[in-house]
Design goal:
Helix content is 33%, strand content 21%. With 246 residues, the chain is of the alpha/beta class. The chain is globular. The model has no long low-confidence stretch (mean pLDDT 94).
Length: 246
């Protein structure tokens, strides 16, 4: 079984379409989406519809999905994120909002060896930025392989070998072997708003039988995504940051 891993799409239709086109060439069997389909970007409805059209085997919510759906206030968001969430809530249809409301929280167990979460298995909103964060997350995981998102930074943490391998600054494009005896905590990076200095869309292909994770980076129509943000009247920084991957 080869899993297409998507996370942090953030209403970026152009990035998602480019990822899906590349993934179709690479080949996959089913889709896992780790949350934050909406928020920040200018085409939340299109991104949500495209994602649902993939019929993911696993689909969970992220923090932006919760706030955009009206499930939680934007008290933890900065002003830019809050304004984008309020706009998103206003432009999504009632049916689309109901879908967001119904998204389950992580963690979600996919197989005996695989689970997905947005932040960590013990807290869907918790960030994993370093070895200490990763250790706490891995101790709370129920499966050998745990996929997460939320940080928008590609990373591979594993035991019992090296405690951490970080795939940053454009290095998150390649195939990596997972430990067969230990455990792995993997972030494939963000589809719609990468923050590792590489503006290309990020996604992953997980093969548990081969025990590998393929990190992919894909160029997409950044200008088109920026135009959608500007046309929506969203803060200019949301468009600007796409070009620099920050």
């Amino acid at each position: 079984m080869r899993y297409l891993i998507l996370t942090d799409i953030h209403a970026n239709r152009h990035a998602l379409q480019a990822v899906l086109a590349d993934a179709a060439v690479q080949g996959y069997d089913t889709v896992l989406c780790l949350g934050d389909i909406v928020g920040y970007g200018g085409e939340p409805g299109a991104a949500l519809d495209l994602t649902l059209g993939l019929s993911p085997t696993g689909l969970i919510r992220g923090n932006h999905d919760k706030v955009c759906a009206g499930l939680e206030p934007a008290t933890s968001f900065n002003d830019v994120a809050r304004r984008a969430a309020e706009w998103t809530h206003a432009v999504l249809s009632p049916a689309q909002l109901r879908i967001l409301v119904a998204l389950p929280r992580g963690p979600m167990r996919i197989t005996g060896d695989l689970e997905i979460c947005h932040g960590t298995p013990f807290n869907e909103d918790q960030y994993v930025f370093d070895v200490g964060d990763a250790g706490r997350a891995m101790r709370s995981a129920a499966c050998r392989v745990c996929l997460f998102g939320h940080t928008h930074l590609p990373a591979l943490y594993s035991t019992p070998a090296h405690p951490v391998e970080r795939l940053l600054d454009g290095d998150g494009d390649g195939e990596y072997r997972l430990p067969r005896e230990g455990s792995a905590l993997i972030n494939v990076g963000s589809v719609g708003q990468p923050r590792d200095g590489d503006p290309r869309a990020a996604y992953g292909l997980l093969d548990l039988e081969r025990s590998t994770i393929r990190m992919r980076r894909v160029a997409y129509d950044i200008a088109g995504a920026q135009a959608a943000i500007r046309a929506a009247g969203l803060p200019a920084w949301l468009a600007q940051r796409l070009a620099s991957g920050e």
